[in-house]
Design goal:
Chain lengths: 141, 141, 141, 141
Amino acid sequence: MVEFSDTDLAGLMHFANFFRFVESAEHAFFRSLGLRVHTADGTAQQGWPRLEVSCQYHRPARFEQTLEICLRVEEVRTSSLRYGFWILAEGEKPRSALATGSFTIVHVALDTVSHTIRKAPIPAAVHAKLVRLAAPPPAST
Amino acid sequence: MVEFSDTDLAGLMHFANFFRFVESAEHAFFRSLGLRVHTADGTAQQGWPRLEVSCQYHRPARFEQTLEICLRVEEVRTSSLRYGFWILAEGEKPRSALATGSFTIVHVALDTVSHTIRKAPIPAAVHAKLVRLAAPPPAST
Amino acid sequence: MVEFSDTDLAGLMHFANFFRFVESAEHAFFRSLGLRVHTADGTAQQGWPRLEVSCQYHRPARFEQTLEICLRVEEVRTSSLRYGFWILAEGEKPRSALATGSFTIVHVALDTVSHTIRKAPIPAAVHAKLVRLAAPPPAST
Amino acid sequence: MVEFSDTDLAGLMHFANFFRFVESAEHAFFRSLGLRVHTADGTAQQGWPRLEVSCQYHRPARFEQTLEICLRVEEVRTSSLRYGFWILAEGEKPRSALATGSFTIVHVALDTVSHTIRKAPIPAAVHAKLVRLAAPPPAST
């Protein structure tokens, strides 16, 4: 639901908050696969920072509107993943989405002592789950 | 400056906050031209919502790091404007930007009673100022 | 649920975000009474800004933790309302709350043309509903 | 400066964002003393989480308004610190503050492996600096 603190003085959800909704849906998607989006073992962390994000805004989202976020895995590579998203007003069809876009995220190992971050291959079991879910982008959108 | 509240548990600036920094730079740019990004005359407002935004993340931004945001007007149309941005660590060169991307924003008239939003041509004087500042995208980046 | 974007580099929910959770619970409470926390009729708006808020932090909230927010109406005056809140980890008891505090909010009429804001008595029907729900603060906490 | 993303649909700065401004001022204050508000040595971190915060809202803050944040150290204990704050419109006097309040913060050692957080005495040199700056609360406010 779009909360009061998500809006701005134009009376609509602030554009940057759409990204928070998409990220929350992504993390719920990871949980639905039995995965954690961020793990820490001492100073060694694994996570999924963003490489590239984009969003097209079609219609505004308003205070107290319930939103549905649809994700579709579009490409799975050795250490990165691209998915498309559709932000819908509750009960609406994807073709009338309020906003659409895509995220490319990358699996990394991050050391909190040395402050190094490097790409890390997606573990095989996770990779297999993601590939099974991947759908090609639609022929025309 | 990257504030504590801009970071997340990975110890770095949260990706959505880069957009807030860019928007603040855009509004400072409008002020530098003697323009307001949002005006209200009773229930009739004029503003510049986002049509499309994208960001590529090259390196993380860290707590207490001072950032420089560079904007370049790339295309001015009847009612919309596209600009590119470069987010730099203070004193760094654009080619080592932490993040790059572009925003397409649209000039609209918004009525807060009827909740209608419609594209509105950029006023001629503003349009002329923006065109004068527009630079073509670089040949190679 | 505590989302990734709610955390900060200490690995815990940022303290200011507790207030967003409380405000969301307040608005859900208003909806449960059939009320809207913010209404607009042309340039005349009615709303409930905050007069005073406080929060005591007892234990941190962590990423992906589900929180329960309990509110108790403690005092209803002509145009203001004070309520206490308890932020609990799911399934925990109020006496082991992660955070507690109170909000005093005031009913106002706000004119978006003249930019005036003035206290406005709580409408009688709303006032009656709130009074019926009010509980005195506990004898000892 | 109050940015667009700091406002909400009432057209004013959202109440929770006042806390972000105060926290930023606190961290600038720590830097002015040559101190860091958060340090990490491997998995052992030291930081200053909030024990208690409060804010009284007197007048709204508006988009593009420049704010001044004044802090006054009011009490320094073995491991905690309480300071008062005044949020002023640029050039205004403290007695016409937009908002006032206080923060009690506590020095802690935090282990990111074991997820333990415990109070830690403020280092003697820091304690001495803070005590020297402490002022008693004003006789009447």
